[in-house]
């Protein structure tokens, strides 16, 4: 298994060139250099992938769950054996620090395969008795061929989060990773072949969202789409797929509040808030980009938070002591910088950061931004309501629980929220009224893969994770048997 200059699609278990024979540049965001090329796939590649999936489907859906699980466990083992190489590849492709890729991204990809391989063995049918009149049992059959489309921020982590439950449930998959970060999905194709995954069960088509992604969404034989990405793209996908009666799971953007009450465990809150603000350069849909602090501790929070943010080491993602790596692309870096400029126009004061730092040597042409903290913004302004998806947070004081809930809920998003308090009553009370699919109390990004994952409002539709994912990737069929004697 290795990185190649020319990445290939995997169709029917074979690594192939795109039908067009055209390739796109793959840029290392830490250096700004083109370091490999991505298949510019189109509807012809997607059609071939669907044919391969159709061929594989009858056998795969009838393969016992235990055997499907064993094949997936082999994939997990092989990723794990090559963890360092995968982590290095993810760091080069995405710009994230090598430490983060090694401790979070790749271990989680391994865990995704292991978790769903195991969970499918205990996914059971329900039965409903109607006294002595009838018995109902509800079987859950695979949908058939499903499409999985994932973003660039946690490339292998989110790609495997989708394809693992889909495959475990007996479907065949046509998947597209983000064109911006394709390398670890390419390594995964090589691993799947080595692990003996039957050809056609997983097909990976690389390329642009508007071409390869669109071809997956519109293909009539792909019956369900699981998508993670931006809200605007999700809206477009929903508009396209809904009239075709496809099943849809949409995991979209967020603008998450981090609510800090004065009675919190201050040190624990501070350490976690640094992480929840700036992990992966703030490019995690769960990052808490709006920090609300109860007035009695506002000044203390501001002082200590800024001191700590100034210490964050921004630099070469390949360096062991780097904490904040490169932003994923020049286009995205420029978008974040525009939001920082907008913050000033909207009345914000930049307390620290806000600039493009100078990074020496091989990274001087890379895309970096200093971690940035902004104060004084109205809670309803654009910077406080639109997703920036970068190392930029705002801090806002509040007086009462009512006030902070009103401010926290004042966006169109509803993905995640953190609440910091030592009061059990307040934690429950606030959690109940926050509009978010995921609420963390005194923690952040503490994930149990069995729990439902997803957002309210414009942050998405449906839930993934645990049996929710299997419910999405299967069709329920109820069989009712009459028990009455004639
Ligand atoms: P995009 O919406 O731009 O892209 C996501 C994926 O969709 C990519 O593979 C993209 O391909 C593809 N795509 C783009 N257009 C289409 C189309 N018309 N039809 C089908 N596929 C298409 O998101 P980003 O990659 O920029 O990711 C960042 C976003 O993802 C943020 O908004 C973030 O909040 C969200 N996100 C949500 C998560 C959640 O769980 N709720 C988790 C992580 C991220 P290409 O790359 O080629 O454009």
Walk me through this protein's architecture.
With 486 residues, the chain is of the alpha/beta class. It folds into 2 domains: 9-252 and 459-478, Aldehyde Dehydrogenase, Chain A, domain 1; 257-454, Aldehyde Dehydrogenase, Chain A, domain 2, CATH 3.40.309. The protein is built from 15 helices and 22 strands. The strands form 6 sheets. A 7-stranded mixed beta sheet has the order 14-15-16-13-12-18-19, with helices on both faces. A 6-stranded mixed beta sheet has the order 9-8-7-10-11-21, with helices on both faces. α2 (65-81) packs across α6 (183-195). The longest helix is centred in the N-terminal third of the chain and has 22 residues, at 98-119. The radius of gyration is 23 Å and the shape is globular. The structure holds NADPH dihydro-nicotinamide-adenine-dinucleotide phosphate. NADPH dihydro-nicotinamide-adenine-dinucleotide phosphate binds next to α7 and α8.
Descriptive tags:
alpha/beta, globular, Aldehyde Dehydrogenase, Chain A, domain 1, binds NADPH dihydro-nicotinamide-adenine-dinucleotide phosphate, 39% helix, Aldehyde Dehydrogenase, Chain A, domain 2, 15 helices, 22 strands, 6-stranded mixed sheet, 2 domains, single chain, 7-stranded mixed sheet, 486 residues
Give the topology, please.
Blueprint: E1 9-11, E2 14-16, E3 23-28, E4 33-39, H1 43-62, H2 65-81, H3 83-94, H4 98-119, E5 126-130, E6 134-142, E7 145-149, H5 155-168, E8 172-176, H6 183-195, E9 202-204, H7 209-218, E10 224-228, H8 231-241, E11 247-251, E12 256-260, H9 266-278, E13 288-294, H10 298-310, H11 330-345, E14 349-352, E15 372-375, H12 382-385, E16 392-398, H13 401-408, E17 413-414, E18 416-420, H14 424-433, E19 438-441, E20 456-457, E21 460-461, H15 466-472, E22 474-482
């Amino acid at each position: 298994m290795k990185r190649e200059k020319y990445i290939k699609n995997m169709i029917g278990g074979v690594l192939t060139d795109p039908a067009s024979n055209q390739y796109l540049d793959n840029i290392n965001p830490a250096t700004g250099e083109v370091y490999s090329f991505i298949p510019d796939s189109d509807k012809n590649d997607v059609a071939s992938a669907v044919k391969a999936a159709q061929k594989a489907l009858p056998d795969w859906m009838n393969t016992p769950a235990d055997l499907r699980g064993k094949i997936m466990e082999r994939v997990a083992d092989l990723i794990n054996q090559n963890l360092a190489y995968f982590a290095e590849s993810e760091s080069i492709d995405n710009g994230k620090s090598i430490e983060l890729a090694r401790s979070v991204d790749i271990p989680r990809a391994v865990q995704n395969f292991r978790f769903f391989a195991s969970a499918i063995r205990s996914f059971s049918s329900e039965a409903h008795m109607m006294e002595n009149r009838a018995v109902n049992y509800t079987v859950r059959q695979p949908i058939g061929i499903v499409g999985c489309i994932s973003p660039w921020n946690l490339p292998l982590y989110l790609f495997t989060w989708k394809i693992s439950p889909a495959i475990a449930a007996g479907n065949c998959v046509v998947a597209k990773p983000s064109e911006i970060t394709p390398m670890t999905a390419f390594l995964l194709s090589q691993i799947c072949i080595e692990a003996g995954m039957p050809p056609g069960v997983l097909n990976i088509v690389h390329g642009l969202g508007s071409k390869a992604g669109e071809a997956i969404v519109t293909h009539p034989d792909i019956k369900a789409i699981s998508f993670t990405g931006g809200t605007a793209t999700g809206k477009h996908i929903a508009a396209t797929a809904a009239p075709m009666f496809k099943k849809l799971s949409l995991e979209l953007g967020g603008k998450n509040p981090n609510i800090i009450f004065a009675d919190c465990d201050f040190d624990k809150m501070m350490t976690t808030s640094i992480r929840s603000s700036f992990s992966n350069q703030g490019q995690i849909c769960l990052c808490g980009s709006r920090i609300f602090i109860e007035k009695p501790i506002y000044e203390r929070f501001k002082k200590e938070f800024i001191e700590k943010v100034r210490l964050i080491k921004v630099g070469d993602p390949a360096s062991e002591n780097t904490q904040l790596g490169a932003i994923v692309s020049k286009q995205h870096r420029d978008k974040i910088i525009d939001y920082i400029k907008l913050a000033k126009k909207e009345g914000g004061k930049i307390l620290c950061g806000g600039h493009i730092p100078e990074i020496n040597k091989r990274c001087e042409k890379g895309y970096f931004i200093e971690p940035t903290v902004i104060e004084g913004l109205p809670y309803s302004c654009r910077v406080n309501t639109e997703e920036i998806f970068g190392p930029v947070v705002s801090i806002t004081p509040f007086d009462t629980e009512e006030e902070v809930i009103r401010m926290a809920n004042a966006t169109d998003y509803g993905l995640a929220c953190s609440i910091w308090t030592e009061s059990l009553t307040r934690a429950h009370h606030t959690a109940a009224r926050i509009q978010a699919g995921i609420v963390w109390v005194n923690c952040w990004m503490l994930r149990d893969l069995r729990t439902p994952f997803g957002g309210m409002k414009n942050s998405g539709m449906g839930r993934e994770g645990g049996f929710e994912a299997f419910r999405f990737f299967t069709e329920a069929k109820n069989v009712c048997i009459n028990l009455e004697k004639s």
